[in-house]
Task: structure prediction
Amino acid sequence: MYKVAVMGDYDSIYGFAALGLSIFPVDDKEQGQKILKDLAAGDYAVIYMTESLAAKLQEEVDEYREQMKPAIILIPGISGNTGAGIAQVKKSVEQAVGSDIIFNGEN
Amino acid sequence: MASSQIIPTRMELAKQKKKLATATRGHKLLKDKRDELMRQFLDLVRENKALREKVEAALQAANKNFVLAKASTSDQVLNAALLAPKQEVYLETDTRNVMSVDIPVFQYKTRTADANDIYSYGFAFTSSDLDGAVKSLADLLPDMLRLAEVEKSCQLMAAEIEKTRRRVNALEHVMIPDAQAKIKYIKMKLDENERSTQIRLMKVKDMMLEEARQERIAADAR
Result:
């Protein structure tokens, strides 16, 4: 039985608490690294992360990319959509196909 | 060409032929695997893109609702309202094997069956904006979980496709030409050896015939 976590700045994620997801407010990089490591080792199968936090934890996010668990999914925070989430999809396409054939240079 | 290191013998030739046969078969299989993976990946990635666009748009709308809710309610009341959630989400994970890639399948369960348990607060002190905001997030949850499933699958498949493509290329451009070159080299060398043996035998025969003739002439003369 796995759980779902949400990481990011408090304002962006507090709503998810009502749904029964575990929220982990993170302000700085060190704290984020620590929490992410704990979550990945614990029984969290999906971690939603705000794009602004993911930008700070780029290395760690990439590290879990090719592992089965956890799935780190970027979501736009309250400050708006930075396009980092869609960039992850683009990266998959580029890795698999060699060039970007799905987005064709949009955004 | 690395043929300078190999010894031109029949055994080596048989070995190289076997290697070529294995490499050719492996190349064909891996190519098929790559093509099928690619086909499934493209379907999945299109779904991923559509889903992500939908989820991102909906999340932004939900975030707007939360900002409104925050504006009309004091921080303390809001924090207290969301402090003790009634609902909890569990995930049941399973894996599905697509062309030797294990991709995740999520099934989510909630602790209570009541859809209204997402409201962990009394309605008296919070604004209705909060209800709407929470509701919009709850409606989005199945899509978000599906997004997690699809996006993880895409990432895993992309990694596998990259690996398979490298293997196919290595077989196609290195292993197979190399084995072919070696086989050609050994064959030429063996043929050459055979020819030289034959010539030597012919020479020896000529020499022996010549010797016999000389002996006969000598005998006749006596």
